[in-house]
Protein: Peptidase M41 domain-containing protein
Organism: Chenggangzhangella methanolivorans
Amino acid sequence: MDDVLDAIRDGKPDFAPGVRRRVAFHEAGHVVVTLALGVCRVGSAAITSDGGHTEILQDLTDHTVEGLTAMIAQALAGRIAERLVYGEIRSGSGGSRDSDIALATHVATAIEASFGLGEQGPLYLGEPDRVVGGNAFALVSSAVRARLRMAEETAARALAANSCTFERVAEALARETYLARQRIEELTRDLVKTPVFDWPEEHEPHMGPLQ
């Protein structure tokens, strides 16, 4: 196990206890929300040399609006966990193309601009990354923001319903710095499944006949 931890940390020194604990709560948020919503299976969680990492074993989400919203909630769960515990969020959830916020924005934009599942109905504006960086984003930006907010609420509800499990996973990760799949299963035995929050009525996609 020491060799595994050394590889994870890449030979760099460990974080100060306060920082390690915060990273642990962030990653525990990803773990608990992912399992509570049934988005994917979690292979491991670790505190790494550059922060933390939650390994997703397999995508079990069908590409319905509900399934995709659950995927967004899983991506945003770490920042919501930090807000619940510390009352504020670090910048670590964003800032790069492979960040939590980037993934969440990509999926929310895909719903609205690429998959034909959004407020505009069966409309294709392009690949999500191109839409976000282009003029077409103005057409879907309010719906994308609403989906992100709804996913954050979903994550918050899942964590609130599993507060004891959430704290248990976080404390174990802060102490052990690496949780394998079997260890995660032990820590989440009493997990409460949480449904995806309903789409706000004022933002429901128009499903009537095309005009």
